[in-house]
Structure formats: structure tokens, C-alpha cells
Amino acid sequence: MKYAKRVAILAAFITISLIIILYNSLGFKDYESLKDHSDVEESISQIEMRLANIRESVHKSASVLPNFPEIKRPDKPKEEFKLPAPDQTDKFLETHCVSPRGELSGTRISETYEEIAFNDIDGGVWKQGWPVTYDESEYTDKDPLEVFIVPHSHNDPGWIKTFWDYYNSQTRNILDNIVDILTENEQRRFIWAEISYLDLWWKEQKEDRKNKFRKLVLNGQLEISTAGWVMNDEANTHYSSMIDQLFEGHQWTRDNISPNFMPKTSWCIDPFGTSPTMAYILNRAGIPYLAMQRVHYEVKKYLARQKRLEFSWRQSWAVGTQDSSTDTFTHLFPFYSYDIPHTCGPDPKICCQFDFKRMAPDRLTCPWGINARAIDNNNIQERASTLVDQYKKHSTLYGTNKLLIILGDDFRYQTYSEAHAQFDNYERLFQFINSNKDMHTKIQWGTLNEYFQAVMKEKNQLIESGSPKIESFQPISGDFFTYADRRNHYWSGYYTSRPFYKEMDRDLRSHLRAAEIFYSLARIQDTTRMEGMYDMLVTSRQNAALFQHHDGVTGTAKTFVNNDYGERMLTSLKNCENVISQSTQILMGHHSAENIIFDIDEHRVKQDGLPQRITIDTGSEDRYVVFVNSLGHERRELVSIRVNSVQLAVFGPSGENILAQISPAFDFPFQLRDDAFDLYFEITVPPLGASQYKIERREKGKSQVTVSKLYFHNHAEFKSNTFTTEPISDSEISFENSYITATFTRNQATLTAVHSSEFNTKVIIEFLTYISNFNSRDDRSGAYLFIPIGSAKIFRDMNSPNVFVQRGELISKICGRFLYLTHCSSLIHTKSIEATSVQFENYINLIVDNEEVVMRLKTSVKSKGENYFYTDLNGLTVQRRKYHSKLGIQGNFYPMPTLAYIEDINTRVSIHSKQSLGVGSLENGCIEVMLDRRPIYDDSRGLEQGVTDNKAIVGKFRLHVEYSQQGIKEANSELSFPSLVSQITRESLQNPIFKLVMKAKALGADSKYSGLSLPLPCDLQIVNIRALSPQDPTKSESALILHKFIYNCELPTTGIPFNHCGNQDADGVDITKLFSKQRLVEITHTSLTMLQEMKPKVKSSIANFDSIDIKSYKLTFATNISQ
User: Where in the numbering of this chain does the Glycoside hydrolase family 38 central domain appear (predicted)?
Assistant: First the structure.
């Protein structure tokens, strides 16, 4: 074999040398000297003739290599992407990389954790606070307490009932009653949030009823707050899904309420912890105000003591600067819940008496033993005084004399009598309080917007007067995870609950994004043939948006409700597959085909089943596969397709022979297939593009693919006619490529170390289980809560798995099968970005009750500071975490939507995840990722069931070890960013390449397509190209959403091809040049969800970005209309 390699190298050297000689001898010194094309053609012909002679000589020289195929092997890029030197390009570092900051101003939420004892002191009637008092002299005729009462009804789009069941039995009536009760009296107010329900109601209404609703919205009586499709979860959701559901709601209001409709506030009372990502998205959508509820009770108490419950929520990258452009003014409710007993003031026993649904003893009652009473002349003075006392105590927690009181609960105002009971009794109280000036209180119905406008007016007055009260409005940065509502009841379980549907959500997200982008591009080419596809997109958008609900993607709904979400997502996945296939068909030039000619390689048959792969019958005909890339950069990646033969050859878009590898196919958990094989080869796909590859059947003995070699341990010996098999003799197994070497232990089939020429990092993978607490009814793990009994224990059969190893030229893999878990690790041997990481797949089918399974990474990294680690926030930014023993195990787990990492002065270890999961770092140098959980009991948060409907799932991860010789500096105590390699890896994992198997032979089609004329800069991503509703067939309108990010420039850019990125030094991106292949006729810069045009209007095609940013542009293209 060594001799054969030497001959091949010698032959290659001779060939290159002769080509250079030919090049010079033919005078190719100056292309301008060639007067016409005939000179070029004659010269090329001469080269071809001479190369033919050279090839024949080379083949004779290599005759010692029988059946030596002319195969294109993966090459190292001519040059890898390099970051500019810091002393050469200060502007580059300023706009693309982490930069040091000065002293920070304002409050960081992480700092409050250092100061708070978390000792849950009983505060009396306000259990989680303190005995609140007030000074009556603070309220005067000139400066009275001004109270805004805001009626609301929180409607979950699925939880205990399905979305449809809730609407039919409750929400329809609520919306009917809102219209009627507000129409009776123009002084009355109400707020609504969930557009998904409003859409169902709207479809049933006659035009006069719709006009009544519109009038109520436009005259300010009925405020639509946030106007998202749902009130989305903020822990598990990807930022692009947050945008999508908000976009869907906003476009609905524009189309149905008014073209000029613009929500002014956001209503976030039920998501279980809140993220600055959502605040930023609201900011970019033009919504300046936010009201929220669920924050750790001790953090609320801390902020209330300082009158800091209203603040400007500032993004982490803007902290320490004067930049307030990312701020969202936020109101945080202080008490336990958003229901009426916990909103009027600190004493729920008293507040409950002013919930006038609780008047009849045979209906809803107050748990404190005293129910509400109707207001009459006999009790009005006492009732009014009692209520105002609570209001004044409540107001002491804020910095102004304006007070926001919300009046409602889940699915309230279902009956007309309930609505009248609330409005009539409060109006009697209003009249009495407002007419008694000695109460120094003004009370009225209000909306959120009316309240915030009043607060802003007083805030400006405080600024003008130089009042010290203005200090209460200082900026706050950070997130509000992990939420606890009482004692040590941390809501960290839902970060992982029902991971099957969390993965399905990400699958749908990538499908929907690709369908949106390629539909938008295809509609420009052929409007007629894309008819009908838009309705599929709308259905898919709305189903995907519905699942972002805070009881959807969280995994906290009833089993049958989850199944309903699953069926909706399955329908949407199939719709997206059709749109992607049809769009690709048009873009690749298959104009003659009437029907869809592609099958998607991986597809779901059932809502509760894993994706299934197509086995391509290579038979006697050549087969074609089109690979589709939805990202704005060229991708070189290793792919696999399943085939039924090993006698094959693979050819690229230009007809070049591609190196391929045959490996055994096996289905999880550990079932080797004898009727199918996995065919691996590396592909190159242009940005927003597609590439076609041919799979050619060869006669026996003439195959041009390499064959994996198989090894096994602790497994019954198996025979194969295709593969060489033998037992594993060594105790350690190593895989190596051009960048790293990964070492595994034979007995456990798990990683032990990753090293290169620059570093040697211990990374030991372990699987452990926590036991769910079930001993006490009040302290149980459940869908929401994670409350373990003690520390995690090593997996029961960690030392006796069945081990399987495959080695190949393109990819090597090791798998270990445990009790209900199969763990596989892979290393790719190409020279590409994906070869810089170790890839993991965890098949898990959890069947043991009250177990919560984690994958632990034990590394040699010495975590910075006091056990610091980092997790991402919705795939947008990164938040530093710190282990606090006072929070217990459950309080030290955080959401990991896509990424977590630990680092020391030189080394960073990152774990990327395809789906959202919970993560913690309980020991220095360790990361724990929770994979699945099966607590069988209810955790007393309303679901009334445990989580025992686990599905088999395959979780996909990538492990990066990155080393910096100059050291990883902290820009400041909070700010951190992934490396560029890590950012690209994350985008690749979240947006996999689609594999479209052609049903019939291609006829007259193109072998490559790209929707972009230029690749995007490395730090710019296309969030979406979202098609707008088709109006005029001669033009196509889409929303282009771009995301500019910052990355860590101290870490290497290993594996990134030089041509991967566009111009790194440009101040902006010319959108016209990006889409020069299409007839782009107009560009308009808008707010994020396109409800507003940005001012001042600038007719420019340049998209400018400073630091991190997300921007939207309305693109108008001229279309081709099919005859």
C-alpha cells in the first residue's frame, strides 16, 4: 500500500510539472494578448491533446494499482479564512468581535444573585415579601395615586384542552362578551393578546360584527397587546421562531384590523421565565413597552425593595455604553400570580374579595374563606377604603404615583353575567373613590398603553425636575432564568420535558425556513406553477407558531394535547416538503415536469415516530440526488444517502468523480441492516442553492467507492459479505483527521480526550441519572419542576454496552448500546468546518419511571472564575452563568436552546445541540446536558399528570474544542460570544442540507443553482426570506430578514474556506448585488415585522449594521408568468 501511494504521488507530481511547462510554452502570460476566442480554443485543444498523452503515460506508470479510479478526493481549501491582525483593522474588531468595555452602569441580574440569600423568609400576608406600609402624606390632591384597572383574559392555545376544544368551549364566548361589554360603555377597556384565537373567531363573524371589533381597537377601548400568534415560550424557542410567530400575528392584524395598526405594548404574564431576546425582538418590531409576571420571587422582592420593578431592559452588548436603542421599558408585577387575588395588593385574602366572579358560594370561591360581595350603598365606603389601602401599599413598590392593576385570570369573562359582575361593581367603586377627594386616588379603566403613556409622562417630569426618583428607572441587563414560584421549586424541568417534540419543532423550523426561502425565489421564476403553494406555507406557519406557545414547545400540556400539536406539525412538515420539492424543481429548470419529481430523503410517517430514510434502488438506471442549502454561504459537507448496493460510483455537478464510502446501515437502537447501506460523500452547495449529484450503478468488481471496516466488542460476532469484521483488541480507539484526534474507551464506547498539535484536552463523556423526587406531594418533579433526590448516579450498565466501530476514509464512527440508550460518536475525515468537531448522536427511549437522564462532559478545562459557564439565549446571544450552591441542583440548570460552553485562559469546550434541552455545570470543568426525563407524578402546577408519554428520540450534538495561543480574554464580566467556527457549526446543525431524491432521470435540467450572486459576509445570516401574500401576479413581495452577529476573534478559524465569506470590511451589504440574478425592482427598510417603514426613508440598497442587529427589508421582484 505504501508503494502504491508513492507511485500515485509521483504521477501527480509529473502531471503538475508538465501542465506548468505546457502553460508557459503556449504563451499564457497575458490573457489580454489573445485577440479572439479562436486563439483560446486552439490553445485549449493543444493542451487537451498533450494531456491525453500524459494521462496515458501516467496510467502505464501506475499499472501496479489495479482498478485505480480517477476519483476526486476532498482537498484542503487553497487558503483558509483568516481574521485580520488586531493592529491593522480596528474597525473590523469593533464591529465584528468582542471588544473590552469600561465600568458597567445599571444592574445586571446576575449580580443580584450574589446579594440575595434565597432563604425564603415568610413575609406575612405577602408570603414572599414583607409587611408593606405607606405614608398617607405622599398622596395629595395635586399628586394623587392614579390607578389604571386593565381587564384581561389569558387564553392558552392548548394546555388541559386542545386549541380547538378551548376555542369551542370557552374562547369564542369570551371574545363575544368582550365586544358586547365594551360596546355598552366607551369608558370600558380590555386587552387581548393571542391572535391565533382571534383568527378562529374572525372567520365566524359577519362583517358588521368585525366592524364593531375594529372600532373598539381603533378607538382605544380594546388593546391588542403584543399581537403575536401566541404568547410564546422564551426558554426553549429559537429566536427565528419567535420572530415568525410575531410576524404571523402582526400580518394578521394589518390585513384584518387596519393597514396602519401598530401594537404599542407587549403582554407576557405566563411564560415561565423571560429572555432579553424577546424584549429585543419586540424592540425591533417597534414595541417599546413590556409587562411581565413570572420572575423568581426572590428577585422580585429584591427589585421591589429598591423600587426597581420598572426598568429599561437593555441588551448585554449595549451595557456600559450610552446606547439605549435596544432598551425596552418593562413593568414587572410584584406578586405571586396574575390572578385577581394576587394583583390588587400584597394581601391576597383581601384582593380575592374584589373578584366578583367569586360571589356565589356554589361557584368559584376564595380559598381564604371570605368571598366577594356585591357593592351596594351599605358597604361601598368600607369596600372602597379597603381596596384603596391595598392599592397604596402596592404603589410603594414603584417609583411613580401611577399604578397598574390587572383584572382577570385564565379564560375569564366566559359568561355575560361574569363580565357584568366585574365591570358593574368596579364602576360603582370608581364613582365613589373619584368623588371622595380625601382618598387622594383617581381610578379608571385603562389599557397597558394608557398606563405606560402616563408613566412616561411622569418619568420625563422627574428628569426635568432632577428628582432622585429617576434612579429607579436605571437599565437592567440579563435574563430571568431559572424561574421559581415558591420555596426551592425551580421550573427547570420544562427545559427538557418531551424532548421528542422539541426536536420535531426544530425539524419543522428548518423545513419551514427553507420552504419560505425557496418558495420566494421560485415564485419569481414561475408564478403560475407556484399557485396553491402559498396556502401550504400559511398553514405551516400557523401550526409552527402555535407550538411556540408556552405550554407547547415547553412540553407542559396534556398528552392528547401534545399529540394534537404533533399532528399539526406533521401536516406542516409534509406541506414544507412539497413546497421545497416544487420550488427546487422550478429553480433547477425542470419546467417540463407537471408533477413533483422529488422525494425528500428523510420524512416522518407518524407524528410520534422518528424520521424514516428512503433506500434508493440503484437498479439499472442512474439515480440523481439534489442537495439544497438554505444558508447564505457555500457549504462543503459530508452527506449520506441510503442505497441497496455497494457497486456504485458518485459524480458531481460537473461530471467529476467523487470519493465515496460505503458503510453498514443500521437503525436505532442497534439494528444492522442487511438490505441497505449508507453511502457517504462530500458535496459542495452554493449559497441559497442546490447541487445535483449522480449515483451510478457499476458492475461487480468495478465499484468506485471505498468500504468501511467493522469492529465489535461485547457483541455476538457477526459475519458480512460486504465488510471486513473483527473484534476490538485495544482498550482505546482513536479517530484522526487533519485537525483533531478523538480518543474513545472500548469498554464504554465514549469519548475520553480530544487533542491536536496545539492542545490535549480531556473530555470524558458519562451518562448519569437523577431520581425524580416523589416522596413529598408538595416537592415532586413533574413537567415543569425538576426536583431530584440527591446527586446524579452513573448509568447502571455504563461498563457493559455492545460496542460497534466502523472505520472509513471519509468518516469513522463508534457506537455503544446501553439499556435504553445508544450513544454514537463520529469524526469526519474531510478538510472542512464539520471536521473540526466530534459529532454525537444519542438514541434514547426512556422506559424507567422517575429517572432523569443527563450526558456529562468532564473536561480538563479550569472554568473561569467561580464555576462559570455559558449558555445561549434562543440562539441569539450568550449569557454567562455561575454555579450557586444556595440554589440547589435544580436552580443551577438553565435552558440551552442551541449551545453551552466552558473555558479557561486558553481552551474553550462547546457543546452544540440540535434541539433545546436543560444544561448545568455543577462542578468545575463539567457540563451536564439533560437528555430526557420521566417523572410519573404531577408537580401541582395545574397539568394534573406526570410525563410518562416518552417517545424514542435521536438527539444530535457537536463537540468543539478550541484553543487560543494568545489566550481568551473576558471583554467584561458578562459578555461572551461563540467563535466564528462555532457560529457556522450552529447554523449548519440547525439548518441541515435537504436531500431530494429524483424519481426519474433528469431531462434538460441545470446541475447547480444559487439564489445569491455573492456569499454573505461571515457575520451576516439570512433569518428568512418570507413571502408576502400574493396580490399582483406581475410582482412578488418578500420580507428579507438579516441578522448581524458578533463572534470571538481570539479563537481560530480552522476549517473555514477562504471563499466562504463575502467582504468582511464593507460598511454595508448591497442587497441589489446579492440578488442580481433576480429582477429586484424595489427595496424598503421596515420594522422587523413590516408594520412600519423606517424613517427617514432612504432609497438605498445598502443594508448597514452596527454591532448585533436584526433588520427587515421589503423586497419587490418582477415575476415571470407561465403561459
Answer: 489-569
DSSP-derived 3-state class of residue 813: strand
Question: Average pLDDT, stretch 78-105?
Answer: 51
Measured CA to CA, the distance from residue 857 to residue 907 in angstroms comes to: 15
* pLDDT (tens digit per residue) in 701-724: 777 899 999 999 887 666 777 888
Q: How far is CA 738 from the centre of its chain?
A: 31
All three cell numbers of 882, joined, read: 455561575
Model pLDDT, residue 94: 52
**pLDDT per position as a tens digit, 18-28:** 444 444 444 43
For residue 625, which of 561, 675, 573, 679 has the smallest C-alpha distance?
Answer: 679
| 976-1019 residue pLDDT tens | 999 999 999 999 999 999 999 998 765 567 899 999 998 998 89
pLDDT at residue 323 in the model: 81
Cα separation values, 192 from 151, 155, 217, 371, 622, Å: 9, 9, 10, 27, 58
Q: Please tell me what DSSP assigns to residue 170.
A: I
Neighbours of 1071 (CB within 10 A): 19
| Cell numbers 426635568: residue | 464
Cell numbers describing residue 1010: 444559487
Cα→Cα distances 175→212, 226, 413, Å: 12, 17, 9
| Residues contacting residue 210 through CB under 8 Å, at least 6 positions apart | 202, 256
Helix (H) / strand (E) element for 958: namely: strand 953-963
The contacts of residue 31 (CB under 8 Å, 6+ apart) are none
Burial label for 1091, CB within 10 Å (0-12, 13-18, 19+), is: buried
In the predicted structure, residue 306 carries a pLDDT above the cut 50: yes
- What is the distance between the alpha carbons of residues 328 and 230, in angstroms, rounded to a whole number? 20
Q: Cell 408593606 belongs to which residue?
A: 132
Interval 117-164: pLDDT, tens: 999 999 999 999 999 999 999 999 999 999 999 999 999 999 999 999
Tell me whether residue 270 is one of the annotated catalytic residues. yes
Q: Provide the H-helix boundaries in 929-1081.
A: 980-990, 1071-1074
What are the tens digits of pLDDT across the range 833-873?
999 999 999 999 999 999 999 999 999 999 877 789 999 99
Tell me, rounded to whole angstroms, the distance of Cα 353 from its chain centroid: 43
Question: pLDDT digit string (tens) for 597-625?
Answer: 899 999 999 999 999 999 999 887 889 99
Q: Which of 156, 176, 270, 932 is catalytic?
A: 270
455 phi and psi angles, rounded to 5 deg:
-65, -45
Q: How far apart are CA 686 and CA 692, in angstroms?
A: 11
3-state SS class at 21: helix
Please state the rounded mean pLDDT for residues 520-525: 95
Q: How far apart are CA 1008 and CA 773, in angstroms?
A: 56
Name the strand (E) or helix (H) holding 882.
strand 877-882
- C-alpha cell, 662: 460505503
Place of cell 445570516: 1021
C-alpha 945/C-alpha 700 separation (Å) is: 58
In this predicted structure, which of 420-424, 676-680, 732-736, 1103-1107 has the lowest mean pLDDT? 1103-1107
Question: Do residues 727 and 711 lie in contact, with contact meaning Cβ atoms separated by under 8 Å?
Answer: yes
Buried b / exposed e over 572-597, threshold 16 CB at 10 Å, is bbbbbbbbbbbbbbbbbebeebeebb
Cell 423568581, located at residue: 296
Gap between the Cα atoms of 899 and 495, Å rounded: 13
Q: Hey, what's the cell of 989?
A: 446543525
| Contacts of residue 591, Cβ cutoff 8 Å, sequence gap at least 6 | 526
Mean pLDDT of 542-548: 98
> Which helix (DSSP H) or strand (DSSP E) does residue 824 occupy?
strand 821-828
The confidence score (pLDDT) of residue 874 equals 98
pLDDT band of residue 209 (cuts 50, 70, 90) is: very high
Mean pLDDT of 207-223: 98
Give residue for cell 468543539.
Answer: 960
Contact predicate 722/707, CB 8 Å: yes
